[in-house]
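Hi L.,

As promised, Neutral zinc metallopeptidase:
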Amino acid sequence: MKWQGRRQSDNVEDRRSISGGGKAIIGGGVIGIIVLLLNVFGGETGQQIAPILEQMQGGQGQQTETAAPLSKEDEEMGNFVRVVLADNEDIWSKIFAENGMTYEKPKLVLFKGGVQTACGGASSASGPFYCPGDRKVYMDLGFFEELKSKFGAKGGDFAIAYVIAHEIGHHIQTLLGTSAKMRQEQQGKSEAEANKLSVALELQADFYAGVWAHYNQENLDAGDIEEALSAANAVGDDAIQSKMQGHVVPDSFTHGTSEQRMYWFKKGYKTGDIKQGTTFQEIR
């Protein structure tokens, strides 16, 4: 992605030089990876389960607070994130204005180890997520190395851009009232039916990420879309369950299959039309 020398957002809170305020997973292991994958890309289920799994580590999770200077690589990644967030701000402000609405810009928090949020404490094992309570996106960039080394994603800077755009998609859903409506619809539903609504929410966030990429094409490099699709493929529920437990349980899906995640990102990218993110009508 072409990003050097471009506008950077002022809405990034970089807390990486002071880690702490949440439970840092010491050693991680299989449970840490499960927490990360359950919670990946904003899933509420993972945030509910994460504290229980951390307790199962038998004291391996502990409060930490350390201060350390950022490396040049850390600083460069921070600048990249600021550019990606700025692109999202510009594009979504324009789209909202065209539809007679005002876009409220979210904050993006970079952290290492652990962080306190309006949705509670979170560790790096939680993966990137959006907290509607404070309307902030939280990311530990170490997640992307896990995604590449353990789950076969290609990596690359646009994989990070895709995840940021996905989390901003959850912010869009909060602003439009979609998330609140989905939670209301989940009340009284069976677990399988409630999970289908969660899948629709996540796939719509993938669609919105594609819409953002559609309007950002002038800044894309060859291979960027493939990087995003590779990341989407790696975090499909079927891919994760197959790798972690050797079989899949479709009724337990909360984020969608690899095929679905790639399909909805590509649909957003090809159309650029927010009205075509009809996941709730199609995922029933």
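The beta strands are 12-14, 18-25, 61-67, 107-110, 114-117, 120-123, 129-131, 136-139.

Thanks again for sending the construct details.

K.
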